[in-house]
Amino acid sequence: MTTTSAPGPLAGAVPIALVRRGDVVESAHHGHVVLLGPDGDVVGGLGDPDALVLPRSCLKPLQALAMLRSGLRLGGDLLALATASHSGEDFHRDGARRVLASVGRDETSLANTPDLPLDEHLRATWTAEGRAPERLAQNCSGKHAAMVATCVAAGWPVEGYLDPDHPLQRAVLATVRDAAGRPGVPAAGHVTTDGCGTPLPTVPLSGLAQAFAGLATAGRGTPGHALAEAVRDFPVWVGGTTRDVTALLRGVPGLVAKDGAESVYAAALPDGRAVALKVLDGGDRARRVAMAAALTALGVDAPVVAEQATAPVLGHGEVVGEVVGVPVPLR
Protein backbone atom coordinates (compact mmCIF):
# COMPACT_ATOMS: atom_id res chain seq x y z
CA MET A 1 0.00 0.00 0.00
CA THR A 2 1.28 3.45 -0.94
CA THR A 3 0.99 6.25 1.58
CA THR A 4 1.88 9.92 1.49
CA SER A 5 2.52 12.62 4.05
CA ALA A 6 1.30 15.38 1.73
CA PRO A 7 -1.72 17.33 2.96
CA GLY A 8 -5.00 16.44 1.38
CA PRO A 9 -8.70 15.71 1.87
CA LEU A 10 -8.56 11.95 2.47
CA ALA A 11 -9.09 12.02 6.23
CA GLY A 12 -12.63 12.51 7.44
CA ALA A 13 -14.36 12.36 4.06
CA VAL A 14 -18.01 11.29 4.13
CA PRO A 15 -20.68 10.68 1.47
CA ILE A 16 -21.81 13.99 -0.06
CA ALA A 17 -23.67 12.59 -3.09
CA LEU A 18 -25.53 9.33 -3.71
CA VAL A 19 -26.27 7.45 -6.92
CA ARG A 20 -29.61 5.64 -6.86
CA ARG A 21 -30.63 3.08 -9.47
CA GLY A 22 -34.21 2.12 -8.82
CA ASP A 23 -34.59 1.87 -5.04
CA VAL A 24 -30.95 0.87 -4.51
CA VAL A 25 -28.08 3.17 -3.59
CA GLU A 26 -25.57 1.95 -6.16
CA SER A 27 -22.67 4.32 -5.43
CA ALA A 28 -21.61 7.12 -3.14
CA HIS A 29 -19.27 10.03 -3.75
CA HIS A 30 -17.28 10.98 -0.67
CA GLY A 31 -15.88 14.40 0.11
CA HIS A 32 -16.25 17.51 2.22
CA VAL A 33 -18.69 20.43 2.30
CA VAL A 34 -18.42 23.55 4.45
CA LEU A 35 -21.06 26.22 4.98
CA LEU A 36 -20.28 29.68 6.35
CA GLY A 37 -22.77 32.11 7.82
CA PRO A 38 -22.77 35.87 7.16
CA ASP A 39 -20.34 36.41 10.06
CA GLY A 40 -17.82 33.94 8.61
CA ASP A 41 -18.42 31.22 11.17
CA VAL A 42 -18.84 27.61 10.10
CA VAL A 43 -22.58 26.94 10.35
CA GLY A 44 -22.79 23.50 8.78
CA GLY A 45 -21.22 20.97 6.51
CA LEU A 46 -20.20 17.40 5.85
CA GLY A 47 -16.79 15.92 6.55
CA ASP A 48 -13.90 18.15 7.60
CA PRO A 49 -14.54 21.90 7.14
CA ASP A 50 -10.81 22.61 7.23
CA ALA A 51 -9.66 19.86 4.86
CA LEU A 52 -6.69 21.08 2.83
CA VAL A 53 -7.53 20.98 -0.87
CA LEU A 54 -5.99 21.99 -4.14
CA PRO A 55 -8.51 24.61 -5.26
CA ARG A 56 -7.71 24.22 -8.96
CA SER A 57 -9.70 26.76 -11.00
CA CYS A 58 -11.62 27.95 -7.94
CA LEU A 59 -8.39 29.87 -7.35
CA LYS A 60 -8.92 32.00 -10.46
CA PRO A 61 -11.01 34.75 -8.84
CA LEU A 62 -8.28 35.17 -6.21
CA GLN A 63 -5.58 35.20 -8.89
CA ALA A 64 -7.58 37.89 -10.69
CA LEU A 65 -7.93 39.85 -7.44
CA ALA A 66 -4.15 39.81 -7.02
CA MET A 67 -3.79 41.00 -10.61
CA LEU A 68 -6.15 43.94 -10.06
CA ARG A 69 -4.23 44.91 -6.93
CA SER A 70 -1.03 44.76 -8.99
CA GLY A 71 -2.24 47.18 -11.64
CA LEU A 72 -4.32 45.14 -14.11
CA ARG A 73 -6.75 47.38 -15.94
CA LEU A 74 -9.65 45.24 -17.06
CA GLY A 75 -13.37 45.43 -16.47
CA GLY A 76 -16.64 43.91 -17.52
CA ASP A 77 -16.56 40.89 -19.79
CA LEU A 78 -12.77 40.74 -20.00
CA LEU A 79 -12.39 40.82 -16.22
CA ALA A 80 -14.88 37.97 -15.98
CA LEU A 81 -12.79 36.13 -18.58
CA ALA A 82 -9.75 36.52 -16.31
CA THR A 83 -11.57 34.28 -13.79
CA ALA A 84 -12.77 31.78 -16.36
CA SER A 85 -12.40 28.12 -17.13
CA HIS A 86 -14.07 28.98 -20.39
CA SER A 87 -15.51 26.62 -22.99
CA GLY A 88 -13.29 27.88 -25.81
CA GLU A 89 -16.11 29.46 -27.78
CA ASP A 90 -15.32 32.09 -30.40
CA PHE A 91 -16.02 35.03 -28.10
CA HIS A 92 -13.83 33.53 -25.36
CA ARG A 93 -10.86 33.21 -27.70
CA ASP A 94 -11.47 36.66 -29.17
CA GLY A 95 -11.69 38.08 -25.65
CA ALA A 96 -8.29 36.67 -24.73
CA ARG A 97 -6.87 38.25 -27.90
CA ARG A 98 -8.39 41.59 -26.85
CA VAL A 99 -6.75 41.38 -23.43
CA LEU A 100 -3.37 40.72 -24.99
CA ALA A 101 -3.80 43.44 -27.63
CA SER A 102 -4.62 45.98 -24.91
CA VAL A 103 -0.96 45.79 -23.81
CA GLY A 104 0.56 45.33 -27.26
CA ARG A 105 0.96 41.56 -27.00
CA ASP A 106 -0.38 38.52 -28.83
CA GLU A 107 -0.81 34.83 -28.13
CA THR A 108 2.91 34.14 -28.48
CA SER A 109 3.26 35.68 -25.01
CA LEU A 110 1.04 33.02 -23.44
CA ALA A 111 2.68 30.21 -21.48
CA ASN A 112 -0.38 28.05 -20.84
CA THR A 113 -0.73 24.53 -22.21
CA PRO A 114 -2.24 24.30 -25.73
CA ASP A 115 -5.53 22.42 -25.81
CA LEU A 116 -8.74 21.90 -27.75
CA PRO A 117 -11.86 23.77 -26.59
CA LEU A 118 -13.47 22.51 -23.40
CA ASP A 119 -16.95 22.53 -24.95
CA GLU A 120 -17.66 18.94 -26.04
CA HIS A 121 -19.35 19.76 -29.33
CA LEU A 122 -16.77 22.36 -30.29
CA ARG A 123 -13.96 19.98 -29.36
CA ALA A 124 -15.51 17.29 -31.56
CA THR A 125 -15.76 19.75 -34.44
CA TRP A 126 -12.13 20.78 -34.10
CA THR A 127 -11.08 17.14 -33.95
CA ALA A 128 -13.10 16.29 -37.06
CA GLU A 129 -11.52 19.24 -38.87
CA GLY A 130 -8.03 18.16 -37.81
CA ARG A 131 -7.36 21.40 -35.94
CA ALA A 132 -4.45 21.33 -33.54
CA PRO A 133 -4.61 22.38 -29.87
CA GLU A 134 -4.14 26.12 -29.32
CA ARG A 135 -3.19 28.22 -26.33
CA LEU A 136 -6.15 30.56 -26.89
CA ALA A 137 -8.57 27.61 -26.97
CA GLN A 138 -7.32 26.21 -23.66
CA ASN A 139 -9.81 27.00 -20.90
CA CYS A 140 -7.37 29.11 -18.87
CA SER A 141 -6.32 31.44 -21.70
CA GLY A 142 -8.27 34.36 -20.26
CA LYS A 143 -6.40 34.10 -16.98
CA HIS A 144 -3.05 33.80 -18.72
CA ALA A 145 -3.79 36.75 -20.99
CA ALA A 146 -4.64 38.77 -17.88
CA MET A 147 -1.39 37.63 -16.25
CA VAL A 148 0.55 38.90 -19.27
CA ALA A 149 -1.34 42.19 -19.11
CA THR A 150 -0.66 42.49 -15.38
CA CYS A 151 3.08 42.01 -15.91
CA VAL A 152 3.11 44.76 -18.54
CA ALA A 153 1.10 47.12 -16.30
CA ALA A 154 3.33 46.47 -13.29
CA GLY A 155 6.59 46.68 -15.22
CA TRP A 156 7.43 43.06 -14.51
CA PRO A 157 8.99 40.71 -17.07
CA VAL A 158 6.44 38.73 -19.04
CA GLU A 159 8.89 35.92 -19.64
CA GLY A 160 8.84 33.49 -16.73
CA TYR A 161 5.51 34.75 -15.33
CA LEU A 162 4.64 31.19 -14.24
CA ASP A 163 7.70 30.84 -12.01
CA PRO A 164 6.66 30.70 -8.32
CA ASP A 165 9.34 33.32 -7.58
CA HIS A 166 8.05 35.74 -10.21
CA PRO A 167 6.61 38.93 -8.64
CA LEU A 168 3.18 38.11 -10.07
CA GLN A 169 3.04 34.69 -8.44
CA ARG A 170 4.34 36.06 -5.15
CA ALA A 171 1.52 38.63 -5.27
CA VAL A 172 -1.00 35.87 -5.96
CA LEU A 173 0.21 33.78 -3.04
CA ALA A 174 0.06 36.78 -0.70
CA THR A 175 -3.51 37.48 -1.79
CA VAL A 176 -4.54 33.85 -1.30
CA ARG A 177 -3.01 33.76 2.18
CA ASP A 178 -4.76 37.01 3.09
CA ALA A 179 -8.15 35.98 1.71
CA ALA A 180 -8.24 32.32 2.69
CA GLY A 181 -6.29 32.24 5.94
CA ARG A 182 -8.20 30.87 8.92
CA PRO A 183 -7.07 30.94 12.56
CA GLY A 184 -5.44 27.65 13.52
CA VAL A 185 -5.49 26.29 9.96
CA PRO A 186 -2.24 25.85 7.98
CA ALA A 187 -1.54 28.75 5.63
CA ALA A 188 -1.54 28.35 1.87
CA GLY A 189 1.75 27.56 0.20
CA HIS A 190 3.03 26.66 -3.25
CA VAL A 191 3.05 22.90 -3.42
CA THR A 192 2.53 21.93 -7.03
CA THR A 193 1.56 23.08 -10.53
CA ASP A 194 -1.93 23.39 -12.00
CA GLY A 195 -2.89 21.90 -15.36
CA CYS A 196 -2.26 25.17 -17.19
CA GLY A 197 1.16 25.71 -15.61
CA THR A 198 0.40 28.19 -12.83
CA PRO A 199 1.64 27.57 -9.27
CA LEU A 200 -1.06 25.91 -7.18
CA PRO A 201 -1.21 26.14 -3.37
CA THR A 202 -3.29 24.13 -0.97
CA VAL A 203 -5.95 26.02 0.97
CA PRO A 204 -8.33 24.98 3.75
CA LEU A 205 -11.81 24.38 2.38
CA SER A 206 -13.24 26.80 4.95
CA GLY A 207 -10.68 29.37 3.81
CA LEU A 208 -11.79 28.96 0.20
CA ALA A 209 -15.38 29.65 1.24
CA GLN A 210 -14.19 32.64 3.27
CA ALA A 211 -12.30 34.05 0.28
CA PHE A 212 -15.42 33.86 -1.90
CA ALA A 213 -17.45 35.51 0.84
CA GLY A 214 -14.91 38.33 0.84
CA LEU A 215 -15.45 38.86 -2.88
CA ALA A 216 -19.23 38.67 -2.65
CA THR A 217 -19.36 41.27 0.14
CA ALA A 218 -16.57 43.59 -1.07
CA GLY A 219 -17.38 47.30 -0.80
CA ARG A 220 -17.95 49.53 -3.79
CA GLY A 221 -14.82 50.99 -5.29
CA THR A 222 -12.64 48.05 -4.28
CA PRO A 223 -10.98 45.55 -6.62
CA GLY A 224 -13.00 42.76 -5.02
CA HIS A 225 -16.28 44.51 -5.81
CA ALA A 226 -15.25 45.12 -9.42
CA LEU A 227 -14.38 41.45 -9.75
CA ALA A 228 -17.62 40.24 -8.18
CA GLU A 229 -19.68 42.52 -10.42
CA ALA A 230 -17.90 41.26 -13.53
CA VAL A 231 -18.66 37.65 -12.62
CA ARG A 232 -22.29 38.49 -11.86
CA ASP A 233 -22.82 40.58 -14.99
CA PHE A 234 -21.02 38.31 -17.48
CA PRO A 235 -21.53 34.70 -16.32
CA VAL A 236 -21.20 33.26 -19.83
CA TRP A 237 -17.63 34.54 -19.88
CA VAL A 238 -16.87 32.61 -16.66
CA GLY A 239 -18.03 29.30 -18.11
CA GLY A 240 -19.86 29.03 -21.42
CA THR A 241 -23.25 28.94 -23.05
CA THR A 242 -24.05 25.39 -21.88
CA ARG A 243 -22.19 25.29 -18.54
CA ASP A 244 -23.89 24.64 -15.22
CA VAL A 245 -21.82 27.27 -13.40
CA THR A 246 -23.06 29.87 -15.88
CA ALA A 247 -26.67 28.81 -15.26
CA LEU A 248 -26.12 29.02 -11.49
CA LEU A 249 -24.63 32.51 -11.72
CA ARG A 250 -27.53 33.65 -13.87
CA GLY A 251 -30.18 32.08 -11.67
CA VAL A 252 -29.10 33.08 -8.14
CA PRO A 253 -29.09 36.87 -7.66
CA GLY A 254 -25.77 38.25 -6.46
CA LEU A 255 -23.97 34.91 -6.45
CA VAL A 256 -20.22 34.67 -7.01
CA ALA A 257 -19.24 31.10 -7.94
CA LYS A 258 -16.47 29.15 -9.63
CA ASP A 259 -16.07 25.50 -10.53
CA GLY A 260 -12.72 23.74 -10.63
CA ALA A 261 -11.14 20.56 -11.94
CA GLU A 262 -11.22 17.45 -9.76
CA SER A 263 -14.62 18.58 -8.47
CA VAL A 264 -13.81 21.57 -6.33
CA TYR A 265 -16.55 24.22 -6.20
CA ALA A 266 -17.06 27.44 -4.25
CA ALA A 267 -19.83 30.03 -4.10
CA ALA A 268 -20.89 32.98 -1.97
CA LEU A 269 -23.90 35.26 -1.60
CA PRO A 270 -23.97 39.05 -1.14
CA ASP A 271 -24.69 38.74 2.60
CA GLY A 272 -21.56 36.63 3.17
CA ARG A 273 -23.11 33.17 3.29
CA ALA A 274 -20.73 30.86 1.47
CA VAL A 275 -20.03 27.25 0.56
CA ALA A 276 -17.02 25.31 -0.64
CA LEU A 277 -16.87 21.63 -1.45
CA LYS A 278 -14.54 18.93 -2.69
CA VAL A 279 -15.63 15.63 -4.21
CA LEU A 280 -12.91 13.20 -3.23
CA ASP A 281 -12.91 11.04 -6.37
CA GLY A 282 -12.61 14.09 -8.62
CA GLY A 283 -15.52 12.98 -10.79
CA ASP A 284 -17.75 15.73 -12.10
CA ARG A 285 -21.19 14.15 -11.80
CA ALA A 286 -21.42 14.77 -8.04
CA ARG A 287 -20.16 18.36 -8.06
CA ARG A 288 -23.29 20.08 -9.32
CA VAL A 289 -25.76 18.17 -7.13
CA ALA A 290 -23.58 18.59 -4.03
CA MET A 291 -23.51 22.35 -4.59
CA ALA A 292 -27.30 22.43 -5.00
CA ALA A 293 -27.70 20.59 -1.69
CA ALA A 294 -25.31 23.02 0.02
CA LEU A 295 -27.07 26.12 -1.32
CA THR A 296 -30.40 24.65 -0.27
CA ALA A 297 -29.04 24.21 3.25
CA LEU A 298 -28.04 27.88 3.23
CA GLY A 299 -31.63 28.81 2.41
CA VAL A 300 -31.22 29.59 -1.29
CA ASP A 301 -34.55 29.05 -3.04
CA ALA A 302 -34.16 29.47 -6.79
CA PRO A 303 -35.43 27.38 -9.72
CA VAL A 304 -31.89 26.78 -10.99
CA VAL A 305 -30.90 25.20 -7.67
CA ALA A 306 -33.84 22.81 -7.89
CA GLU A 307 -32.92 22.02 -11.51
CA GLN A 308 -29.35 21.19 -10.56
CA ALA A 309 -30.25 19.20 -7.43
CA THR A 310 -30.44 15.91 -9.33
CA ALA A 311 -28.89 14.29 -12.38
CA PRO A 312 -30.51 11.35 -14.19
CA VAL A 313 -29.32 7.76 -14.03
CA LEU A 314 -30.24 5.85 -17.19
CA GLY A 315 -31.17 2.24 -17.83
CA HIS A 316 -31.74 1.14 -21.44
CA GLY A 317 -32.08 4.80 -22.38
CA GLU A 318 -34.72 5.52 -19.76
CA VAL A 319 -34.41 7.39 -16.47
CA VAL A 320 -34.31 4.77 -13.72
CA GLY A 321 -32.63 6.69 -10.91
CA GLU A 322 -30.79 9.83 -9.95
CA VAL A 323 -27.62 11.35 -8.59
CA VAL A 324 -28.51 13.52 -5.62
CA GLY A 325 -26.60 15.52 -3.05
CA VAL A 326 -26.65 14.40 0.57
CA PRO A 327 -28.57 16.95 2.67
CA VAL A 328 -26.08 19.20 4.43
CA PRO A 329 -26.81 19.57 8.16
CA LEU A 330 -26.64 22.91 9.95
CA ARG A 331 -25.07 23.22 13.35
Automatic annotation (TrEMBL):
* Superkingdom in the source lineage: Bacteria
> In its UniProt entry, what is this protein called?
Asparaginase
Native source organism of the sequence: Pseudokineococcus lusitanus
Upper lineage: Bacteria, Bacillati, Actinomycetota, Actinomycetes, Kineosporiales
